[in-house]
Design brief:
386 residues, 13 helices, single chain, nine-stranded antiparallel beta sheet, 16 strands, alpha+beta
Length: 386
């Protein structure tokens, strides 16, 4: 994806000319005005297909669909029950699990992660400085995505090996500086497996999804293949996510494997837009007591600025905050997910108005960190609400 103001500007200029064509006519599921606004937002970003679940004052409302879940063979339209890979929005769900467990007095985000792992985990440049679970959640742990981490996608490495590699740590002390880290977020699942001797999938189902009546999973083998969306790069057009290819190598998630499960909690969650909206409503306080008020505040309270400053975004323990008058006249919270061409987003305000948007590919232009397609959807769906 383009990084930096210049690259994003050039990407925006190239997208109308070289980007993948939408190939669909109009969004449907909302009022005429809403459908028209959403169609403009999606087509401006060359979205392949999308499902957007709206909610207003804490209640689900319109479910808007457009385009295609798959372009292979006979094109498969997106439907309300289409399942998407969320990418990094999985981090929001992981944070909800952590704070649910904290509300049950089963852990504390102030704990040193060494207590979960069973051996010392520390930045070798700062021996004796603890790394807490909360630091993993708000990306201040000093654990970073090294070349060895990216290499583990093709050649899996044990988490212990990655943690012994000095390149997995930044030159900054824990707790001091924001640096977005998929490894740090994915580690949370491994630490929970260590603490509870249970696969992160099983723990998620038991403590978060099932009690809330939410159908979601990290285990693609449990899902009907014909309901899962592929995803496509729009510019460049190469690359993407093939459900068929993923299923060919996927194995059921039944047993804990804390050495290898660090690629789950950071981005490999599958669900529908409706189910993602229901998770967002939990962040809004729709289930009083399920997660205590202290935990919800920690999720929503920003602790560090996002490095790119074009749009004012900050990060709490599991949620982004967006407070920028050039985008909207009031603060929003939520998360985004970028992977294999998909550009997903979930955003909500203090009053419980918002949307969950999942797609099968979109233009990857950003304003700072805020995706262009999400900015357009915020304008289409939330601007002017009281």
């Amino acid at each position: 994806m383009p990084v930096g103001k210049l690259k994003n500007t050039l990407y925006g200029l190239a997208l109308p000319v070289a980007g993948r064509r939408c190939g669909w006519k109009a969004a449907q599921g909302g009022s005429d005005n809403v459908n028209h606004a959403v169609t403009k937002a999606l087509k401006a970003n060359h979205v392949v297909g999308a499902c957007i679940q709206r909610f207003e004052e804490g209640r689900l409302t319109d479910c808007i669909t457009a385009g295609y879940a798959s372009l292979e063979g006979e094109k498969k339209p997106v439907a309300a029950d289409t399942i998407f890979r969320t990418a990094s929005i999985a981090k929001m769900a992981t944070a909800l699990l952590v704070f649910r467990l904290q509300s049950m007095d089963k852990l504390d985000v102030r704990e040193d992660i060494s207590d979960f792992w069973g051996e010392k985990v520390e930045n070798p440049r700062f021996p004796g400085s603890p790394i807490t679970l909360g630091m993993l959640l708000n990306h201040t742990s000093s654990i970073v995505d090294s070349p060895a981490y990216y290499g583990s996608f093709a050649n899996p490495a044990d988490l212990s090996v990655l943690l012994r590699n000095p390149a997995s740590f930044s030159p900054n002390p824990p707790g001091m500086l924001f640096q977005y880290s998929n490894l740090a977020a994915g580690m949370i699942g491994c630490l929970l497996e260590k603490r509870f001797d249970m696969c992160i999938e099983t723990l998620m189902q038991k403590e978060l999804f099932s009690p809330l009546g939410i159908q979601a999973t990290f285990d693609i083998t449990t899902l009907p293949a014909d309901k899962i969306a592929d995803s496509y790069r729009v510019l460049p057009k190469e690359g993407g996510f093939s459900v068929q290819k993923r299923l060919e190598t996927a194995v059921p998630l039944q047993q804990p494997d804390p050495q290898r499960h660090y690629l789950l909690a950071s981005g490999n969650l599958f669900l529908t837009a409706e189910m993602l909206a229901k998770l967002a409503l939990v962040c809004c306080g729709s289930h009083p007591g399920f997660i205590d008020d202290h935990g919800l505040r920690l999720m929503r309270t920003p602790t560090t600025d996002w490095p790119q400053q074009e749009i004012r975004m900050r990060h709490g323990m599991g949620l982004l905050s967006l407070d920028d008058a050039q985008v909207l006249d009031r603060p929003l919270w939520g998360h985004q997910g970028f992977a294999y061409g998909a550009v997903n987003g979930v955003f909500f305000d203090e009053a419980g108005n918002g949307f969950a948007a999942l797609n099968s590919g979109a233009g990857e232009r950003r304003y700072g960190h805020l995706a262009s397609v999400n900015r357009r959807l915020i304008n289409a769906l939330l601007a002017g609400k009281e």
